[in-house]
Each structure stands twice: as structure tokens, then as C-alpha cells.
Amino acid sequence: MLSNLTAQLADFDLEQRITFYEMLGHNLTIAVRAVWSDVDSALEVRLNRVKWINEILHQTTMKTRHLRSGSNRRSDEESVAELRHWASQQPSVLADIDWAIQASLEAARNCVDSR
Predict the structure, then answer these.
(1) E-assigned strands of 10-78?
(2) CA dist 107 → 20, 63, 76, 113 (Å)
(3) Do the beta carbons of residue 102 and residue 5 sit within 8 Å?
(4) Which of 21, 29, 35, 69 has the fewest Cβ atoms surrounding its Cβ within 10 A?
(5) Tell me: the pLDDT tens digits for 43-100?
């Protein structure tokens, strides 16, 4: 999903992009809950996964704020590159991040229908 995310975001208008980043933040919190609730994984493993999802969550919430305020100076390409970097730090979070991205893209696509 990360490989073509920039191209998909390029097709969105500003409101859809904001919706994507808002929903990504929301969906990443769900992913954190799922990781934390995985009692079959050692505590150290869960904490490490939460750490890297949290880095992406931090970036996502600031991107949303910058888009809303009109102060965004980073392209989606730059933001996605940073997301890729954080995800590469702990490859075991890729499935969680992929789910969050797919659900967020779907929400952004659907926000056009609700206008």
C-alpha cells in the first residue's frame, strides 16, 4: 500500500486529503490497541511495535493540522517517504499500517459522496 499511496493522494482534493489524514490517525490508534492487546507477543515486542506506530501517528496528526490551517509545507510525497521510514524501523507493523491506510483511503473516497 505504501508503494502507491502518493499517487492515490494526488487524486484527492484538499477535503479528501484532510479526511485521509484524520482517519489515518484514528485508525492508527485502533492498530495500537490491537498490538497492545496481543497477549501472545512479549511485552518488549508489543512496546516496540507501539513505539513505531506512534511515530507515524505523531506525523499524521501534524500533517492534518497543517493541511487544515493552510500552513502545510510538506508534499504528500515527503510525508509518505517519512511514513515509509518509520514503518521500516519495525517491519512487523506493516500489516497494521497497511490496514489503517486502506481504511483511511476508503473513508476519504467516500467523503465525496457525503457532501
Answers:
(1) none
(2) 7, 17, 17, 10
(3) no
(4) 69
(5) 999 999 999 999 999 999 999 999 999 999 999 999 999 999 999 999 999 999 999 9
